[in-house]
Specification:
single chain, globular, mainly alpha, 0% strand
C-alpha cells in the first residue's frame, strides 16, 4: 500500500484530510471522554449532561475543567499529531520539535508578552466599542451572549485561591491550550496555507483570522488576531513550534497567575487592568515601539535556528 507521505498530497487535499481528522478525532475523544467521566465523577450520564448545560451549575466546575482537557485533545492535539504522522511519517520533524530554542529568544518573548499588553488592551477597548449595523442586531446579541457566557465560565475557572487550584488552572488554561492550539494553528494550518499560497505572510494572516474566529469570542477578535500574527511569525522565524508554544503559555499563564493573586488579595488589579494605561498615548506608543524592537531582535536571531 502506498503511504500518504510518499504521495506528497496537494495543499487542498491536506486541508480535506486535516478537516476529516478533526471531525473524527473530536467525536471519538468526546465519546471516550464521556464514557470515562461517568465512573470518574460518580454520576449518571444524564446528570453529567444536565451540569454541562450551564456553566453556573453548583459543583460542576471540575466537570468543565475535565471537558476542557477532553476538547483540547480531541479538537487540537490528536488531529494535529495524526496529521503530522500521515504527511511526514514523523510528527517530530513535521512540527520541528527536534530544534532547540535559544534562551535569549525565550527571554525576549517573555518580555514581549508584557510590553505588548497596552496595545492589546487598546485593541480590546476598540473591539468592544464596535457596533454592528441594525439589521445584524440579532447576530450582535448572540455574540454578546456568547461572550458573557465565556466570561462567566472563565471567571468560575479562576475563582481558586489555593496553590493546588493555581497549578490545575495553569495546566488546563495555559499548558494544554499552548501545546494544542499551536500544534493545530501554527504547526498544521499555517504550514498547509504556506504551501497553498506559496506566501508565508498570507498564511500567517489567514491562520490568525481562523485562530481568533474559532475562539467564538467576537468582541476580543482583534487582540487575539494580533497575538496570532505574533505567534505565526515566531514559528516562521524560529523554525520550531516550541517558541510560539512558549509565547502562548506565557500569555495564558500570566492571566491565570494575575487572577490568582487578585483573588487572594495580593494585588488589587485583574488581568484586564494589568498593563492598562487608560489611553495614555505616550506610554502605549513607547511600549509598542519596545515590543517592535523585541520582535526585530527575534527576527535577527532567526539565522541561529537554521
Amino acid at each position: 500500500m502506498i503511504k500518504l507521505y510518499q504521495q506528497k498530497p496537494s495543499p487542498g487535499m491536506e486541508v480535506l484530510l486535516f478537516g476529516l481528522l478533526v471531525f473524527l478525532s473530536f467525536f471519538l475523544v468526546l465519546f471516550v471522554g464521556m464514557a470515562l467521566a461517568v465512573p470518574l465523577f460518580g454520576m449518571e450520564l444524564s446528570e453529567l449532561q444536565r451540569i454541562m448545560g450551564t456553566a453556573g451549575a453548583e459543583g460542576g466546575i471540575n466537570i468543565f475543567r475535565y471537558l476542557q482537557v477532553v476538547n483540547q485533545i480531541g479538537i487540537f492535539i490528536l488531529p494535529a499529531l495524526l496529521f503530522g504522522i500521515l504527511v511526514k511519517r514523523n510528527f517530530i520533524y513535521y512540527f520541528h520539535l527536534e530544534k532547540r530554542v535559544f534562551w535569549k529568544s525565550l527571554l525576549a518573548v517573555f518580555i514581549l508578552l508584557f510590553t505588548i499588553l497596552p496595545l492589546i488592551n487598546l485593541l480590546t477597548t476598540f473591539n468592544e466599542a464596535i457596533e454592528l449595523p441594525e439589521f445584524m442586531g440579532g447576530a450582535e446579541q448572540w455574540m454578546k451572549e456568547r461572550e458573557e457566557a465565556a466570561r462567566r465560565l472563565t471567571g468560575r475557572f479562576l475563582e481558586t485561591t489555593t496553590p493546588k487550584g493555581l497549578v490545575i488552572n495553569i495546566f488546563i488554561m495555559a499548558v494544554i491550550p499552548a501545546i494544542g492550539e499551536e500544534l493545530f494553528f501554527r504547526g498544521a494550518l499555517q504550514q498547509i496555507f504556506t504551501r497553498w499560497f506559496n506566501n508565508v505572510h498570507w498564511a500567517i494572516i489567514l491562520t490568525s483570522v481562523l485562530f481568533s474566529a474559532l475562539h467564538l469570542q467576537f468582541f476580543g477578535f482583534l487582540p487575539r488576531f494580533l497575538l496570532g500574527v505574533i505567534f505565526g511569525y515566531l514559528f516562521y522565524w524560529s523554525r520550531t513550534i516550541w517558541l510560539p508554544i512558549f509565547a502562548h503559555f506565557v500569555n495564558n499563564g500570566a492571566a491565570v497567575v494575575v487572577a490568582f493573586l487578585a483573588a487572594r488579595g495580593t494585588i488589587d488589579t485583574g488581568m484586564q487592568q494589568f498593563g492598562n494605561y487608560n489611553g495614555e498615548a505616550v506610554m502605549i506608543i513607547m511600549n509598542t515601539l519596545f515590543s517592535a524592537l523585541l520582535l526585530y531582535y527575534i527576527y535577527r536571531k532567526k539565522r541561529m535556528h537554521k
